[in-house]
Each structure stands twice: as structure tokens, then as C-alpha cells.
Design goal:
The protein is of the alpha+beta class. Helices cover 21% and strands 27% of the residues. It has six helices and 21 strands.
């Protein structure tokens, strides 16, 4: 069985985590009980994670067949965007400055406001079979996908929009440049997680080298040598204060990966 040694303090976007051997999925075989990771853009990995696995470069692919766009689950968002721009394919402009690979984006139905990866989706391919979009449950930053996805198919419509590309770039211009895992929390119905975090006085709040960004309060940023423990302390602090002051239970968008206790 092939493995890849990954130092998550360098590999993950938040620059936190241990150096561990990760199982490399090459021929659609993967062991039970392992947690799948992508490019670790929305992950916070503990010093003692469960067994991990990752798709190999074999699943980094793009092609059009009979007006259907086929994308491998290990394909980075930037590569998808470049392909669509080159081939005048519309509907994927929102991927601008949205990090990650297709598999991770599908799992969380990634996007920006009403523009989501599921909008163009036709079907996903797992180890067992192709699964059509209509047979999946999905919503705002949510899906019921619980299998490893190897590839997906999408509608392929002409008309890449440079105007939309510029719009999405500007919409993300308020995001901090420090290492982070993106939005820490999902927006509650009819409100914004960033507004709530700011309202309870946590904008810029710092513990060690971790902080809620001064630029955008819903971004948990690493200011240097931040640790898993510092990050978790801030996450739980925000959850507690927002629940106490507003009666709202914030739902995490950042995915915390740690070994189960007990």
C-alpha cells in the first residue's frame, strides 16, 4: 500500500498539524476507518489525527465528452477555472480565489452566496456506482455524500463570463491574507457569522498566535506559530459567546479532524 508523508504545518492552508503518513488512493481501493482529505483548505488537524487518506494525481483530470464536463475529484479549483476559461465554459467563474480540489468542494457544496458547485452538477462517481444529483441531499454548505468521490460530471454550457469573474474576485477582496482555513462558521439563517462574532467582541481576539481576523471576523487566522489548541479555544469561545448573547448555535464550516476520544 502506497503512502505519502505530509507535514500539515506546511500543507494545510491554516499551517497547523503534524507530520504523518497518509494512505494514497490510486486504484479505487481504500481502507475502512480512514478519513479522506483533499488539499486541507478547510481543515484543522489535531496533533493526534485518525488514519488519513488522500486521492493520488490519477484523479486530477478534465475533459469534455458529448457536451458533458468530466472532472476528477483531485483536480484543483484553479485548474478547473483555467480550463473553463480556455474552452469558454460558463458557470464556474465563482471558483476564482476559492481554494481546494473538486472532491472537497463537492462534499461541502462550496461556493459564494447562491453560486455553488452543485448548480452545474449532474452526477458523482463513487466506488459503488454513479449517483445522480437528484439522489443526493444537499443545501447551503452541506451534502450527504459519505463515500469517496472519484469524479463528477457537469453540464457544459458555453459562455465564460469575464464580468462574473471580476465580480467574484471583488466579493472575496475582504478576505485576510494570513494563513487560515477559510470561514470558521457557516452563516446562520438571515444573518452573518462574521457580524455575530464581531458583535460579541471577538473581532481581532487573539490567543497565542491564533486570532479572529481584524479584516473579516469569521476568518480564524494563524499569525505565526499558532497551535491546534489555540485555534480550538477561539472556536469554542465564539460558539459560547454567540449562544449566550444571541441564542444562536454557530455551525462550524471549518472541519476539525481529531482521533475519537474513548
Amino acid at each position: 500500500m502506497a503512502h505519502k508523508n505530509i507535514d500539515f504545518s506546511k500543507f494545510s492552508s491554516i499551517k497547523i498539524g503534524p507530520k504523518v503518513d497518509v494512505f494514497l488512493i490510486e486504484d479505487e481501493y481504500y481502507p475502512k476507518g480512514y478519513t479522506l482529505i483533499g488539499m486541507a483548505n478547510n481543515l484543522l488537524i489535531s496533533p493526534t489525527p485518525p488514519p488519513l487518506m488522500i486521492l493520488s494525481k490519477k484523479y486530477d483530470s478534465l475533459h469534455v465528452s458529448e457536451d458533458i464536463l468530466h472532472i476528477g475529484a483531485a483536480t484543483p479549483s484553479g485548474k478547473i477555472l483555467s480550463f473553463c476559461k480556455k474552452h469558454n465554459i460558463g458557470g464556474f467563474e465563482f471558483l476564482s480565489r476559492l481554494p481546494g480540489t473538486l472532491g472537497g468542494m463537492l462534499k461541502m457544496n462550496a461556493g459564494l452566496k447562491e453560486y455553488e458547485i452543485f448548480n452545474q452538477l449532474l452526477a458523482i462517481r463513487t466506488k459503488r456506482a454513479w449517483v445522480e444529483k437528484k439522489d443526493l441531499k444537499y443545501g447551503y454548505r452541506f451534502t450527504d455524500i459519505d463515500d469517496v468521490v472519484f469524479e463528477a460530471s457537469f453540464t457544459c454550457k458555453e459562455g465564460f463570463s469575464s464580468e462574473k469573474l471580476d465580480l467574484f474576485k471583488s466579493m472575496r477582496s475582504n478576505q485576510p491574507h494570513n494563513p487560515s482555513a477559510g470561514s470558521a462558521f457557516k452563516n446562520p439563517p438571515n444573518d452573518y457569522a462574521g457580524r455575530l462574532i464581531e458583535a460579541v467582541g471577538l473581532r481581532g481576539e487573539r490567543i497565542g498566535d491564533m486570532a479572529f481576523s481584524e479584516v473579516h471576523a469569521n476568518f480564524l487566522v494563524n499569525l505565526g506559530e499558532g497551535t491546534f489548541e489555540e485555534a480550538m479555544e477561539l472556536i469554542t469561545l465564539a460558539e459560547h459567546r454567540v449562544r449566550e448573547d444571541f441564542g444562536i448555535s454557530l455551525e462550524r464550516e471549518i472541519i476539525v479532524i481529531e482521533a475519537s476520544k474513548g
